[in-house]
Prior knowledge:
With 504 residues, the protein is mainly alpha-helical. It has one domain: Amino acid/polyamine transporter I (Up-down Bundle), CATH 1.20.1740.10. The protein is 67% helix and 0% strand. The chain contains 22 helices and no strands. Helix 7 crosses helix 9 and helix 7 runs antiparallel to helix 16. The protein starts with 8 loop residues before the first helix and ends with a helix. This is Amino acid permease. Keywords: Membrane, Transmembrane, Transmembrane helix, Transport. It is a multi-pass membrane protein. One of its GO terms (cellular component) is membrane. InterPro entries: AA/rel_permease1.
Amino acid sequence: MLFWRVKPLDKILETAEKKSLKRQLGPIQLTLLGIGAVIGTGIFVLTAEAAQKSGPAMMLAFVIAAVVCGLAALAYSEIASMIPVSGSAYTYSYGVFGEVLAWVVGWALVLEYAIGATAVCVGWSGYVNGLLNSGVFGLVEPGTLSLPAWLQTGYFSGGGFNLLAFLIGIGVTWLLVIGTSKSARVNAVLVAIKIVALVAFIALALPAVQSTNLTPFMPVGWGNPTGGVGVLGAAASIFFAYVGFDAVSTAAEETKNPNRNIPIGLIGALAVCTIFYLLVGYGAAGSVGAQPLMDAAGTVLDPGTPAMAAACALPENAQALVCSNEPLAHVIRVLGFPKIGNLIALAAVVALPSVILMMMFGQTRVFFTMSRDGLLPEALSKVHSRFHTPHVITYLTGIVVSICAALFPVGKLADTSNSGTLLAFAMVSIGVLVLRKTQPDRPRPFRTPLAWIVCPLAVAGCLLLFVNLSMTAKLVFAAWAVLGLILYRVYGYKRSHLAREAAQ
Length: 504
């Protein structure tokens, strides 16, 4: 049953050729797409949450998350170069493990891409609302440009309808429909803005680092059995800061010379982002301190809870990094550069849409491929005659993401998104080893070095981070998987193309 209805790799490639997307992306565009997908909410927003969970040891959390991603990236590079089509881990699983596990992986990718995009939409709206409420850095009286309070937050956050989160979701949807190459050009500009902002932060924060701010370095330890805190808990959360690099592989079908360019895009994007993250983490913790807030019993407060909000409201915690919704801008302001801090905040406002773009890009390409395989309605894989993009599924995904962003809070969305990503990474890593045994002679333009060491370590790393996710994220993941299996049994089980061929 595990390897039931396996779709041969040659057939996957043949199916892609029958209804293919236009190849128009080169290695530089792919690397920029990867960087654009990675650098965003994780580093601009979740740095404070990582600090609350682990203190200055969040630097170790960045390293752990980067190592797991790096191992997975090597596995992705091999299998993506062998199967250069859309669909990412879903497609690879279909060709290795069979239809059932492929569906589970594809369904889990919704957690990675769609929920991730929703979280970034909400995060972006928070930055913009803050900018408007402050009078756009003093250009007008504070409050003059503010939206009504009920339009600033979603219904489940105590507001009404998060208008800006909805609008950014709709705007990114339109951009994706009009063309991938156009999206890539816009993304390249946004990536440049983010890199300039991070370089400015590093240049100002590193000289201000003091060793006393890094003591105690690990105030919470490695973590606890239930997950959510400590270095490993922070790594499980900050993993969201790396999520998106695998979206490069979903663009394989729209890539020139994918056998060469996909590995370049994957590994290049991850390397650039890791260097930036380590420097940013060290600069933030070392310059202003990053000690977590605790309750009277000495227990670390959970980020995003009423208890945490109450602690942050105390005057003595007003300047605490862990209390900031815009940690990088906050650090620079505390260091005495308010104007530059405001510009960094503005850079986040301008650049975060590129993360939404790439997450929605990845989601639409996974659904496009599942539809092409018959597991979802065929209408979803229609390609626009002019723009050569899967417009139907792009519109549908964009509407759902936009409405959810308008209603729901960020909450535990990052952790929930990570749960789907970790499953996908683990399955790809296992798939590389299975193909090494079952199809050893198949051409591999890129071979994972020391595969029998790298891939098991990648799987172990994914399992370690999953265990250390919050309990809420684990429960949502389990419920989502059960729902997906029900939908597969009701629709895809009988309607997939492999099922129809078997019935003939």
